[in-house]
Amino acid sequence: MNDKLEVLYHRYLDGEKIADLAKEIGVPRQTLSSRLGRNFDLKAKLVDHTGSKFGMLKVLSITTERVRHNPVYICECDCGNIIKQTGDKLTRRVTQNKSCGCIRGELLDLKGFSSLRIYNIWRGMQQRCYSSKSSAYEHYGAKGFTLCEEWLGAEGFFTFIDWALDSGYDDTLTIERIKNHIGYKPSNCLWIPRGDQAYNKSNTVLSFEKAATIRAMRVRGETWKSIADYLDLKLATVKNVGRGAWET
Fold first, then answer.
1. Which 3 state secondary structure label does DSSP give 75?
2. Using one digit for the tens of pLDDT, what is the confidence trace for 39-72?
3. What band does 245 get if pLDDT is binned at 50, 70 and 90?
4. DSSP character for 21?
5. How far is CA 177 from CA 89, 108, 186, in A?
């Protein structure tokens, strides 16, 4: 019953009324209210702070993540960093949690990585998805594209590095989304030669570089159809490359 109660509690936090929840499970409202009250804080009603600003942090969106029943938000600091922060820390009167840590140098010293190309790739993804100041925001964040939660924040940077190295990153490659209608996450990203990014658009034609990309994606386990969709080519064309056409 505790698991079911927790589900009901989170639905209550997300705005549903106890009376409606009680009716759904067939118990009196007072009974459900009493059970929830014995196990959870009913005063912790969810408030979506999206759009609000706390100190140096502007709340960009709310996630589905919870930390001790507190909602987790994606925030942009005045310095440009994107971090995750819990609602209780944002609304405290003390100011120590009202920045990304830049004013105290506690963001795992990420500034020490700012000269690395891979850091700027990671930072660029965040800016495109969450910062309206970015010139590319209209093509990414404004269309609902996001960076997966595991790549957000300081810890997310190191998670991203681990994925990048495991996925064959080197300084001659750039990150690309496999499916254009989905945001940045491990299962939807790969590394390709810099010039090949332009091929992930319509009205492109086959080239030796694109043929190399087809073979590389095939080696990585992509299906012929997914490769054809990704490069906007006919399925027969992609299969011909796989059979040896356009070898350099």
1. strand
2. 766 555 567 888 888 888 889 988 878 777 678 8
3. low
4. H
5. 34, 28, 9
